[in-house]
């Protein structure tokens, strides 16, 4: 092999031929063939140069050189090959002997192993059968379990236990569907499992849809129940306040020692938020609504992997229901439908509050808040629209009360209701204007029905209803019955109207978010009394009062109404929940003073007219009498008889102060008439005797005033006498020995301060001395002048100078 390799290296070097180019190409071709390189370039080059014969020649030359090498190699290994052939021939005999022995061994083996092979075949066959039987048993067992699960799923489906049915389906799908040996069962499962899930989803959706329909009715009933219980709780609070006011009143009046124990009853029937509501139990027997269908539907959709879709479906449907609840029927008056309208919304949000707290994330708090904001905006819009149309105060109050109860109810569930309360507060003025208008009509009707007769009460309950309930009694002692009251029926009628106004006003202002509203109630109460009632009484006095008895009854009514006004303001304070001392501190003057003054002026005017009829008898007075009248002139006796008769009647009706003011006005008028008679043109002159007669008349009138001391106080009796001051001072001046003292400022201020100097001058000029009578000058000529006459003349001269 070494020689061969050396030859391969030397062979291409036989380059000493004729043509060096051919030798080079032959050398390169030989080298490429030896190295196993690609001969394509050589072939392309030969054909490209047009000399393929040269390439063929070189290839033949290379082949010949390799044949010689092969021949040399064969010669070198020939001897070894011969020896190997000999060895193979010697082995052939051994192989034949071995072959024969193997054949014999095979024959014996086959004869021996034949039965064993047949047994082995039987064993293998039996083993295969056993495996098939085991597989069949396993398949049957698996199919039995599968069928049991299918049967159980069907049982749950038939019983409505959809969650358990879905669990069975999940188990079948995860454990048996891919492993079941039955292709039929597998196809059946692949077809039926989606169908069953769809059936469950459809059935649950139907049940949920039925629940959505049912919950609307339930929500309305629930809202009515909740608002009704809030109303009952409010009524209990009002009852407690009434007891407290009674206790305060008893303490204020100190009628008897009373101990009031104000115990607040537990609200057993109220709506309470059950903070322990669990997911598994949505039924609340107290509230009367069941969320189990909702919980069930939500749970099933969670199991089906449709949780988000169900959440969206629930929210959209509830939002649509709420939008539907906002619809206000134009066919039904809002006054009749407002309770249903607000109860439906209240029930909706009570249900949503329960769902939010117990449904495990079915609805978010932010979503509920957005729904509530929408509801509040819509309710405010509806209230604004309806309130703007209402023209009856009672209707507005009814709706306001229900809205405030709605606010109380939903505030307990954490919903803000300030916007609703703001709407109510905004219409406070309109409500009171309507209320004032209603009271104006009622008061006008009550006054028009008045017969100006004292009210007769036959039973104690009538006295309690018409007198004690308004605290207008003058004594705490219950009178004997039948009882004739000093007022007419219009007084308790008007009191009832005013009390109803106060209660309605307080009712509107209460529970409206404003705690201190007494000032508002008091402002409108002042308007009712000073504008409405006072105006109606003024109209009555100016148009419907005829005669002294009617005028006296009206004046008596005004005195009773003055006491009633004190009760009105106390009642308003009590209902507003402020201490009475604060109400007393803020008291103002009598709001019916115009009507009171008008009634007293009318009564006084009628009495003055009556007195004027008697005062015309003053024309019968002999002004130049020779002797003074001792028993009084005729006119004054008639006047006193009339006044005594008047007082005996009036004291049964009129309070002393009213009677005093009226008498004082009448006496002042009489005094002015006496002065006017002396001042008038009908009296040309008078003498001292006539003046002394007038002095007797005035003394009789003063005696009449003194006799009233038992009816009035001594000070009031003196005030009555003071009503005669002008005539008294004038008569005193005319009877005085020194009339010129009138010119003394000190004496004049002390004794003649009511006299007008012009009247004094005119009247003094009419006074004649007895010596001035006809022919009196002849007998008295040369006699000394009377000092009184001289003083009077000086007074007249000075007064003329002043004027």
From TrEMBL:
One GO CC term, this protein: cytosol
Domain Exocyst complex component EXOC6/Sec15 N-terminal, chain residue ranges per copy: 58-227
Signal sequence range: none
Subcellular location: Cytoplasm, Cytosol
Keywords (A to Z) from UniProt: Cytoplasm, Exocytosis, Transport
Biological processes per GO annotation: acceptance of pollen; Golgi to plasma membrane transport; intracellular protein transport; pollen germination; pollen tube growth; vesicle tethering involved in exocytosis
InterPro entries given in the database record: EXOC6/Sec15, EXOC6/Sec15_C, EXOC6/Sec15_C_dom1, EXOC6_Sec15_N, EXOC6PINT-1/Sec15/Tip20_C_dom2
Record domain Exocyst complex subunit EXOC6/Sec15 C-terminal: where: 420-766
Source organism, top-level taxon: Eukaryota
Functional note: Component of the exocyst complex involved in the docking of exocytic vesicles with fusion sites on the plasma membrane during regulated or polarized secretion. Involved in polarized cell growth and organ morphogenesis. During cytokinesis, involved in cell plate initiation, cell plate maturation and formation of new primary cell wall.
Protein family according to the UniProt entry: Belongs to the SEC15 family.
Protein name: Exocyst complex component
Organism annotation: Durio zibethinus (Durian)
């Amino acid at each position: 092999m070494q020689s061969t390799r050396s030859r391969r290296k030397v062979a291409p070097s036989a380059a000493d031929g004729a043509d060096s180019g051919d030798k080079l190409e032959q050398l390169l071709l030989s080298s490429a063939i030896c190295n196993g390189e690609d001969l394509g370039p050589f072939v392309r080059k030969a054909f490209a140069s047009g000399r393929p014969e040269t390439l063929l020649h070189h290839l033949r030359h290379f082949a010949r050189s390799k044949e010689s090498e092969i021949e040399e190699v064969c010669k070198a290994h020939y001897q070894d090959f011969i020896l190997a052939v000999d060895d193979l021939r010697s082995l052939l005999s051994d192989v034949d002997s071995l072959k024969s022995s193997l054949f014999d061994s095979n024959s014996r083996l086959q004869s021996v192993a034949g039965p064993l092979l047949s047994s082995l075949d039987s064993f293998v066959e039996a083993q295969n059968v056993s495996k098939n039987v085991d597989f069949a048993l396993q398949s049957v067992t698996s199919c039995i379990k599968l069928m049991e699960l299918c049967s159980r799923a069907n049982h749950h489906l038939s019983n409505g236990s959809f969650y358990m049915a879905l669990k069975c389906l999940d188990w079948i799908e995860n454990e048996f569907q891919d492993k079941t040996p039955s292709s039929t069962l597998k196809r059946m499962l692949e077809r039926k499992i989606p169908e069953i899930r769809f059936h469950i989803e459809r059935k649950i959706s139907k049940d949920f849809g039925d629940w959505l329909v049912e919950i609307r009715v339930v929500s309305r009933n629930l809202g009515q129940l909740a608002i009704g219980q809030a109303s009952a709780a409010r009524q209990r609070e009002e009852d407690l306040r009434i007891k407290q006011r009674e206790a305060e009143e008893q303490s204020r009046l100190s009628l008897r020692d009373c101990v009031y124990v104000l115990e607040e009853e537990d609200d057993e029937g109220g709506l309470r938020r059950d903070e322990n509501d669990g997911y598994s139990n949505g039924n609340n027997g107290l509230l009367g609504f069941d969320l189990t269908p909702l919980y069930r539907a939500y749970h099933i959709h969670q199991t089906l992997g449709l949780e988000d879709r169900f959440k969206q479906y629930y929210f959209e449907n509830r939002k649509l229901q709420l939008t539907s609840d906002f619809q206000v029927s134009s066919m039904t008056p809002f006054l009749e439908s407002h309770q249903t309208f607000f109860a439906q919304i209240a029930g909706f949000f009570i249900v949503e509050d329960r769902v939010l707290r117990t449904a495990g994330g079915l609805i978010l708090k932010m979503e509920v808040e957005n729904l509530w904001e929408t509801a509040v905006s819509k309710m405010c819009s509806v209230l604004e629209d309806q309130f703007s149309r209402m023209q009856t105060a009672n209707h507005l109050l009814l709706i306001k009360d229900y809205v405030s109860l709605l606010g109380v109810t939903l505030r307990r569930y954490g919903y803000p209701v300030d916007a609703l309360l703001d709407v109510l507060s905004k219409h406070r003025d309109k409500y009171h204007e309507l209320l004032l208008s209603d009271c104006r009509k009622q008061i006008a009707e009550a006054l028009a029905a008045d017969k100006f007769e004292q009210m007769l009460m036959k039973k104690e309950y009538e006295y309690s209803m018409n007198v004690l309930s308004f605290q207008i009694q003058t004594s705490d002692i219950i009178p004997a019955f039948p009882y004739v009251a000093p007022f007419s029926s219009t007084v308790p009628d008007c009191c009832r109207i005013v009390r109803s106004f106060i209660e309605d006003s307080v009712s509107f202002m209460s529970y409206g978010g404003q705690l201190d509203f007494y000032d508002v109630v008091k402002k409108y109460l002042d308007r009712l009394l000073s504008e409405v009632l006072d105006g109606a009484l003024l109209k009555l006095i100016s148009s419907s009062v005829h005669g002294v008895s009617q005028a006296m009854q009206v004046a008596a009514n005004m005195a009773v109404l003055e006491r009633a006004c004190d009760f009105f303001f106390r009642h308003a304070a009590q209902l507003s929940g402020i201490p009475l001392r604060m109400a007393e501190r803020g008291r103002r003057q009598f709001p019916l003073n115009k009507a009171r003054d008008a009634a007293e002026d009318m009564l006084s005017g009628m009495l003055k007219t009556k007195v004027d009829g008697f005062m015309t008898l003053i024309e019968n007075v002999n002004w130049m009498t020779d002797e003074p009248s001792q028993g009084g002139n005729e006119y004054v006796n008639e006047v006193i008889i009339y006044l005594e008769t008047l007082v005996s009647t009036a004291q049964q009706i009129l309070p002393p102060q009213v009677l005093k003011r009226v008498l004082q006005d009448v006496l002042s008028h009489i005094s002015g008439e006496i002065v006017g008679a002396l001042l008038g043109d009908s009296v040309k002159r008078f003498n001292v005797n006539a003046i002394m007669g007038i002095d007797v008349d005035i003394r009789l009138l003063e005696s009449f005033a003194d006799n009233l001391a038992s009816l009035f106080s001594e000070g009031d009796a003196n005030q009555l006498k003071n009503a005669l001051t002008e005539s008294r001072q004038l008569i005193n001046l005319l009877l005085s020995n020194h009339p010129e003292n009138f010119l003394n400022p000190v004496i004049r201020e002390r004794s003649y301060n009511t006299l007008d100097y012009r009247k004094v001058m005119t009247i003094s000029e009419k006074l004649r001395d007895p010596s001035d009578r006809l022919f009196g000058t002849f007998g008295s000529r040369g006699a000394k002048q009377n000092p009184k006459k001289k003083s009077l003349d000086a007074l007249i001269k000075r007064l003329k100078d002043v004027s």
